[in-house]
Amino acid sequence: MSDETLSPTLTDAQWARLTSIGTVADVPAGEHLFRSGDADYDLIVLEEGEIEIVRDALRWMDEVVITRMGPRTFAGELGLLNGQAAFLSARTTEPSRVRRISRAELRHIMDEDDDLCDLILHTLWARRESLRHGPAAMTLKFVGYSSSSE
Questions:
Q1: Is 85 inside any structural domain?
Q2: Global pTM?
Q3: Which domain holds residue 67?
Q4: What percent of the chain has pLDDT above 70?
Q5: Radius of gyration of the chain (CA)
């Protein structure tokens, strides 16, 4: 899958519409914007700075940086639309300005703006598919006790 599919270039008009909603926050380097397992997280629109998307360390493997994203991109997963928890984590690598768009705000703009809806949905779907084949595929977690046969 191409980088353009996973992190598309937004037109000036798309960018203006996307940044007309949400809450702006200045975030220091190293702060998590969402973490693997978070059930309630926002779409993160990066206005300034850089974030990295990581597969968290597991007992048997180290953390892996999946990608880094710069300004005029957005970070999020398909779970934003269907209520699933985040598979990956996102954190800043330098002081950054982000816009947090809640699930409710995201659903509203997708209802109202077909162009943005298509772009966001296509991108989130492509990211989900990429999770199945790259380092992020190892995010599968078994829940329960190690002594349990279930």
A1: yes
A2: 0.80
A3: 3-136
A4: 83
A5: 16
